[in-house]
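Private note to self, pasted from the team thread so I don't lose it. C-alpha cells:
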C-alpha cells in the first residue's frame, strides 16, 4: 500500500485525513459540479458521478480536492452558485500545494501534453495543477469526467507516479470488494426446499 507523502509539508487536518490508510481519490472540479450543483443545473455526467456518494463506498476511500477547486469555484460569476458549491464541498479535505516553489511535476506534464490540445482547451493548464497537487499528496486516484484530461494523461507516464486518472465508474470498479462481484448461482435457490401455496 502506498503511503501518503506526509513529509511534504501537509497541515494537521490534511495529515489526519490522509493518514487513514484508505486509498485517496482526488476529485476534479467537474466532479464537484456533478455532485453538488443545484438540482436545476443540467450536468451531463451527474447520474454517473452521483454513484460516488453511495453509502457502501464511503468507508473504502478518502475523497479530497486540490486547492485549485476553490480557485475555479471563485471564478464562477453567479454568486449563489459560487456560494452553494463552496459550502457543499467544504467537508472535503483540501490538499496543499508546492507552488510556486516547486513546479517540476506541472512542467513535465505540460511538456508531454499535445500542443494542439493545449491550444484548444486552455483549462488543461489548470487540470495539470490539480493532478500535480494529487501526486505531491501521494493520492492513489484522480477522478474526472474531462475527456481532454483523460486523453492527455496517456502521455504523462502516470504509472511512474503511482496514480491513476480515471472516470467515476472506473474508480467504483477499482474499489468494489470482490465479494460484491460474485457470480449468481441458481443452484443456491434450487437447493432450498420451498413449498408454494396460494
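Design output:
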Amino acid at each position: 500500500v502506498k503511503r501518503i507523502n506526509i513529509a511534504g509539508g501537509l497541515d494537521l487536518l490534511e495529515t489526519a485525513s490522509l493518514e487513514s490508510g484508505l486509498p485517496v481519490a482526488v476529485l476534479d472540479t467537474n466532479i464537484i459540479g456533478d455532485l453538488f450543483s443545484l438540482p436545476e443545473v443540467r450536468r451531463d455526467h451527474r447520474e454517473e458521478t452521483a454513484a460516488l456518494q453511495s453509502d457502501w463506498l464511503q468507508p473504502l476511500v478518502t475523497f479530497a480536492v486540490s486547492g485549485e477547486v476553490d480557485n475555479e469555484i471563485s471564478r464562477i460569476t453567479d454568486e449563489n452558485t459560487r456560494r452553494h458549491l463552496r459550502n457543499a464541498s467544504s467537508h472535503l479535505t483540501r490538499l496543499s500545494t508546492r507552488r510556486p516553489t516547486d513546479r517540476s511535476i506541472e512542467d513535465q506534464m505540460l511538456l508531454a501534453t499535445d500542443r494542439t490540445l493545449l491550444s484548444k482547451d486552455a483549462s488543461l493548464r489548470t487540470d495539470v495543477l490539480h493532478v500535480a497537487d494529487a501526486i505531491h499528496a501521494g493520492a492513489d486516484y484522480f477522478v474526472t469526467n474531462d475527456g481532454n484530461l483523460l486523453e492527455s494523461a496517456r502521455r504523462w507516464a502516470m504509472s511512474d507516479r503511482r496514480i491513476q486518472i480515471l472516470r467515476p465508474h472506473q474508480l467504483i470498479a477499482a474499489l468494489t470488494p470482490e465479494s460484491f462481484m460474485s457470480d449468481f448461482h441458481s443452484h443456491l435457490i434450487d437447493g432450498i426446499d420451498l413449498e408454494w401455496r396460494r
